[in-house]
Amino acid sequence: MADDGSAQSQTVWPMPKFYFQVKWDSEVMSFQEVSGLDVESQIIEYRAGDNPVFSTIKMPGLVKSGNVTMKKGVYKGDNKFWDWFSTIKMNTIKRVPVVISLLDETDAVTMVWTLANAWPTKITGTDLKSDSNEVAIETIEIAHEGLTIANG
């Protein structure tokens, strides 16, 4: 008899990635795409001079996070990206926490990525084409001082 899935565990399936929420400081913003949620440990290679093995060993070094890129539709009168970017002065910018939450079908938070002290490094406006019927999309690239990941 074929399994109709009714007796299957709810924890078997991985989460879909299309339902998420972004909190920018304390304001919820809508985005089409978020990418760059990565962390890596740099590698330190070391070999003692009196080591009889003629190869290096590898040790974990400094932790490095990449910039996060977010894309959203362009709305009339919505200049939040540009307003934040325009506050950049010589070595000063308002840094805010950015919280990205993956949601389940009941709107419950299942996984959370938190960017500490985030600030904009680059904004890319939409491209314009007279023969296109696509939505206008703008992109912001955000630098931050650390990424933490937690389950909801």
The parts where pLDDT drops under 50 for at least 5 residues are: none
Order of helices and strands: EEEEEEHEEEE
What is the end-to-end distance? 37 Å
The CATH topology of the domain at 20-38 and 66-151 corresponds to Pnp Oxidase, Chain A
How much of the polypeptide forms β-strand, as a percent range? over 45%
Gross geometry: extended
Tally the helices: 1
Q: What is the name of the CATH superfamily of the domain at 20-38 and 66-151?
A: Hcp1-like
Helicity range of the residues?
under 10%
**What is the average of the pLDDT values?**
89
C-alpha Rg (nearest Å): 21 Å
Give the CATH level 1 class of the domain at 20-38 and 66-151. Answer: Mainly Beta
Q: Write the CATH architecture name of the domain at 20-38 and 66-151.
A: Roll
Write the layout of secondary structure elements.
Elements: E1 20-24, E2 27-29, E3 33-35, E4 39-46, E5 57-65, E6 68-73, H1 80-85, E7 96-103, E8 109-124, E9 137-143, E10 147-151
Antiparallel strand pairs: 1-2, 1-7, 3-6, 4-5, 6-9, 7-8, 8-9, 8-10
Structural commentary:
With 152 residues, this protein is mainly beta. It has a domain at 20-38 and 66-151: Hcp1-like (Pnp Oxidase, Chain A), CATH 2.30.110. Helices cover 4% and strands 46% of the residues. The longest helix has 6 residues, at 80-85.
